[in-house]
């Protein structure tokens, strides 16, 4: 019965795509390649998969844009039709509000596939002072209003006397990035909630709690590094007093230039990310617009190739991806094969 429902949904979606595809003009009316947007963290993995599937399946090379997860979600959810992306790369799970935005614009059938793991890594130059941080240190250093009061900290020693008396200078992801969302959820909020009053505020005033706990200062201590993580790596390497925040794969790929900063005593490594002992560990996803499956050749092939490549012996591990546990890989390989629609009831 379930497979019938999925097939019926895809059939209805295909009709919707046909109708919407004609809404544009010129090149928007037809497309013979897969269009992908989203996370800069997932970008190098998606690019490797695209290169491989282009050769193996004989399809046109997918076009991939590194827009950041949040910005990519807006593009993905904007509508059904060839003028809209087919796939969204995401370095965090889709939000409930994004799913609702998708549905409002007619994007009602979505396939969610977890493709691997990554961590939001804190790093410094190999010439750096050897920082050791806790989530509360990061929160006090980067929050606009830590615990509800304006941030006046200038040096790391102002945040924690045991840290070096060097200026707080952090290069990190922009507001459109899934890495920024993960920073807010996995690190900043944990640091904020060390204060009992802030933890209680989460129940009494959720919006105020989010503002106090996740809003980042804008006085220059935190620098928006953009979606080009390789450029961010270069900036950190050049400034031994600065800290960078980006996907673990970029730290692992630049071990000759950078070193990971321990968080709560745990160094970001392949093992600590894979077993989630590192506080910044997170899953990576791709989201597929089911309405485009029949109309755009290559979407199914792209998903299948991801599943072929994400195992312990696959080429994505060599690219820096942390491999998901076997049961997670199997479950998501089944989804990639069947294109089972996601259950949005667990979204936050």
Written overview of the protein:
There is one protein chain. This protein is of the alpha/beta class and 348 residues long. It has helices at 2-21, 43-57, 69-76, 96-104, 135-142, 156-159, 178-192, 196-204, 206-214, 229-238, 248-252, 270-274, 299-309, 315-318, 326-338, and strands at 35-38, 63-64, 87-90, 110-125, 170-172, 222-224, 243-247, 258-260, 281-289. Strands 1, 2, 3, 4, 5, 6, 7, 8 and 9 form a nine-stranded mixed sheet that branches. The chain starts with a helix and ends in a 10-residue tail after the last helix. Residues 1-16 and 18-28 have low confidence and may be disordered.
Would you summarize the structure shown here?
With 348 residues, the protein is of the alpha/beta class.
Note the main attributes of this structure.
348 residues; alpha/beta; 15 helices
Distance between the termini: 28 Å
The radius of gyration over CA amounts to 21 Å
Structural class: alpha/beta
- Average pLDDT reading: 90
How many H/I helical runs?
15
Q: Please count the beta strands (DSSP E, at least 2 residues each).
A: 9
Poorly predicted runs: 1-16, 18-28
Q: What does the main sheet amount to?
A: 9 strands, mixed
Please tell me what the overall shape is: globular
SSE topology string: HEHEHEHEHHEHHHEHEHEHEHHH
What fraction strand?
5-15%
Helix content: 40-55%
């Amino acid at each position: 019965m379930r497979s019938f429902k999925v097939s019926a949904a895809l059939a209805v979606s295909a009709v919707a795509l046909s109708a919407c595809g004609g809404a544009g003009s010129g090149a928007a009316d037809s497309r013979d390649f897969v269009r992908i947007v989203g996370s800069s963290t997932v970008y190098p993995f998606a690019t490797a998969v695209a290169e491989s599937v282009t050769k193996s399946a004989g399809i046109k090379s997918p076009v991939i844009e590194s827009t950041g997860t949040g910005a990519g979600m807006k593009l993905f959810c904007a509508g059904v039709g060839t003028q809209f992306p087919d796939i969204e790369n995401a370095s965090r799970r889709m939000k409930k509000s994004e799913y609702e935005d998708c549905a409002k614009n007619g994007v009602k059938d979505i396939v969610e596939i977890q493709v691997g793991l990554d961590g939001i890594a804190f790093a410094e130059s190999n010439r750096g002072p050897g920082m050791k941080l806790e989530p509360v240190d990061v929160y006090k250093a980067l929050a606009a209003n830590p615990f509800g009061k304006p941030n006046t900290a200038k040096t790391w020693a102002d945040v924690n006397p045991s840290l070096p008396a060097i200026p707080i200078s952090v290069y990190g992801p922009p507001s459109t990035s899934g890495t920024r969302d993960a920073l807010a959820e996995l690190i900043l909020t944990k640091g904020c909630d060390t204060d009992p009053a802030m933890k209680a505020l989460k129940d009494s005033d959720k919006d105020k709690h989010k503002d106090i706990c996740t809003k980042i200062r804008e006085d220059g201590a935190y620098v928006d590094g953009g979606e080009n993580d390789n450029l961010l790596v270069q900036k950190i390497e050049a400034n031994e007093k600065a800290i960078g925040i980006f996907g673990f794969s970029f730290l692992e790929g630049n071990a000759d230039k950078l070193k990971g900063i321990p968080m709560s005593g745990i160094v970001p490594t392949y093992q600590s990310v894979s077993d989630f002992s590192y506080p910044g560990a997170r899953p990576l996803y791709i989201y597929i617009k089911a309405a485009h499956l029949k109309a755009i050749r290559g979407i199914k092939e792209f998903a299948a190739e991801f599943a072929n490549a994400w195992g312990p012996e696959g080429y994505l591990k060599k690219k820096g991806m942390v491999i998901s546990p076997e049961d997670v890989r199997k479950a998501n390989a089944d989804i990639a094969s069947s294109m089972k629609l996601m259950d949005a009831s667990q979204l936050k």
